[in-house]
Amino acid sequence: MLRYILRRLLISIPLLLGMSLVAFLFISCAPGDYFDALRLNPEISEATIRQYEAQYLLDKPVLVQYAAWLGRLLQGDLGYSFAMRAPVAHVIGSRVGNTLLLTLVAMVVAWGVAIPLGMWAAVRHRTWVDRFLGLQMVIGMSVPSFFLALLLLYIASRTGILPVGGIRSAGAQSLSPVGQFLDVAAHLVIPALVISAASMAGLARVIRGNLLEVLQSPFVLAARARGIPEKSVLWRHALRNAINPMITIFGYELSSLLSGAALTEIICNWPGLGSLMLTAVRQQDLFLVMGDMLIGGVLLLVGNLLADLALAWSDPRIRYERS
Amino acid sequence: MSAANSAQYGFSPMRRALRRLGRNPVALASAWLLAAFYLSAIAAGFLAPYHFDDERRDLSYHPPTALHVRDAAGAWHWPFVYTTSASFDRFYRRQFAVDTAKQYPLRFWVKGSHYRILGLVPSDRHLVGVDAPARIYLLGADARGRDLLSRILYGSQVSLSIGLAGVLITFSLGLLIGGLAGYLGGWVDDVIMRLCEMLMMVPGFYLLLALRAAFPPQLSSIAVYWLIVVILSFIGWAGLARVVRGMAASLREREFVTAAKVAGCTPVGIVWGHLIPNMASYTIIAATLSVPGYMLGETALSLLGLGIQDPHASWGNLLSEAMSIGQVQFHPWVLWPGAFISATVMAYNLLGDGLRDAFDPRLEAGRS
């Protein structure tokens, strides 16, 4: 298993490198750079800008710049964010926890609701429950996350029951630890709900489909014939087999979850990686864009790897060593 | 095989599938809704009461105009509207005063701004309208007093067509590249698949933003339109190519491919002429289900101000007025474009489900 993990990680390194090179070239193609904005700032002298340029070799050809960036990366230095006036690692470090918190909560909610819903629909196949849930799932899949976010924020601003955007209230620093936790939790409700809604609907549909298929398979018939209670057939025999394929989906989900989180973060003003990316892109903050993309890629990579490992753990038929 | 199936046995699979689709009321309704949306996008100039940039700054955020059928005295009339004028109260909230002195009846086939249907047929007739000093805002007005309904109609031209354009390019690319990878195998396959994995390495939205950053922020709306199509296709082909590659790799072992090879077909000819037609049902379903993705890509970029720029409308940049959350409660009708986006996405999803059921009745929606 360890060999498999190592091989996966080794394969992904050139992929990440290639991706970063392409991204670097693309961003360098963009007309203008952050220094153009910096030059307009009277507080910053031309000499400072020259110094920045010299320090990060930004006056050299693109490939030299990229090599320098890569060299610093290997030493654990992600570069300097000119817009935030702080090292990129520091800026990202202050955001990555927020994105992970949001994504994980959304994921737990999505799976926690989707599995029972999908099961319910499958067990009540072709009844009004199934049809009603099916309709809800289609609606859930179809309402775009940004629109759902805007709607919920609108309702929140009308009623005042939930905070509108952000991660903390203005005076949260003075609250007790429990109060601070509750404050963040209240801010988390809308973005987490928005992100989970879309994937929840999709997941529930797949679980329903899988379970329907499993429920028609011979081993379920055999279990029923042996007089095993229906509850036990469903939970212990059918569900376990229906959920297995879902673990592969988990890996794919992660990408769309992170993407969905980015847009929702921006709309809900949640200080995460996605909203950071938008700021960085708008300000042409080269190293911040690169760092943010890299971290997004690494998150995805780790998530996919975890999904594959979980699959091997849950399904004894899958053995990675031999393949 | 049942009697019903054997009765259709003489028809091609495609025709049988279309027949099954015709018996699915949900899918049919979705198809009709989409047809209506696309037709109204084509006829936007005629259906919209005003030009998309026809502003009345004094009527900023005018609420939806009330259509009256009874006047102040209680007498019945043909539907009419009153003029309104805006003022501020002592809290600086906008107040609209209705002037009931004169009635402006609703008119059909009125003369108004000039437009061209499909860029060809010039006209200045509009479906509905009211006489000059009065304005009719069926869905309310935006910050500059432009009619939201007109802007939604004009915006649908962008938002609805961009999905089709994106899917067209992505699927041509994805099918051809994925098909070649699967058919040729070997190093071509390896290189293409690594390329796909590279593109799929980064969460799509991050890539979208980064690619958008490579181009100047202020481009003309036409340029931005095609830029978005190209960027979305550039990101989208990878996932499709992987699936197509798998199918091509299994199809390549079939006899008809050997026959084509013996007959002297080139690899591109075999992929295009023999492999891809065999994936038609998958392609049609996948294309239908991926149109919303492209639409939403455009909408998201425009929403963030990186897409279609102001005087021009798209559903995304119309919705960006709702981004200032604190203000939306005073003019909630700016959320309308979102309802149109949702309806379109839902119609595509339901139609895609219907197509899947029609092409493969053994499968149920959601079973991948």
Could you give the order of the helices and strands of chain B? HHHHEEEEEHHHHHHHHHH
Rounded to the nearest angstrom, the distance between the terminal CA atoms of chain A is: 11 Å
CATH architecture identity of the largest domain in chain A: Orthogonal Bundle
H/E topology pattern of chain A: HHHHEEHHHHHHHH
Strand order, sheet with most strands of chain B? 1-2-3
Instruction: Assign the CATH class of the largest domain in chain B.
Output: Mainly Alpha
* Number of domains as seen in the coordinates of chain B: 2
Give the CATH architecture of the largest domain in chain B.
Orthogonal Bundle
Principal-axes geometry of chain A comes out as: globular
Q: Can you give the helix content of chain A as a percent range?
A: over 70%
Poorly predicted segments of chain B: 364-368
Task: Provide the domain count of chain A.
Answer: 2
Label the overall shape of chain B: elongated
Please mark out the parts of chain A with pLDDT under 50 across 5 or more consecutive residues, or reply none.
none
Class inferred from helices and paired strands of chain B: alpha+beta
Q: Main beta sheet of chain A: strand number and arrangement? A: 2 strands, antiparallel
Strand fraction band of chain B?
5-15%
Using DSSP, what is the number of strands of chain B? 5
Q: What percentage of the residues of chain A does DSSP assign to strands (E)?
A: under 5%
Description:
The complex is a heterodimer of chains A (323) and B (368). With 323 residues, chain A is mainly α. Chain A has two domains: 11-77, no CATH class; 95-314, Orthogonal Bundle (MetI-like fold). Chain A has helices at residues 2-29, 34-39, 46-55, 62-74, 88-123, 128-142, 145-159, 177-215, 218-225, 230-268, 273-282, 286-314; strands at 80-81, 86-87. In chain A, strand 1 and strand 2 form a beta hairpin. In chain A, helix 6 (128-142) packs across helix 8 and helix 9 (218-225) packs across helix 10. Chain B is α+β, with helices and mostly antiparallel strands and 368 residues long. Chain B folds into two domains: 11-42 and 153-367, MetI-like (MetI-like fold), CATH 1.10.3720.10; 59-143, no CATH class. Helix content of chain B is 56%, strand content 13%. Chain B has 14 helices and five strands. Chain B has a three-stranded antiparallel β-sheet, with no helix packed on it. In chain B, helix 7 crosses helix 8 and helix 8 runs antiparallel to helix 11 (280-303).
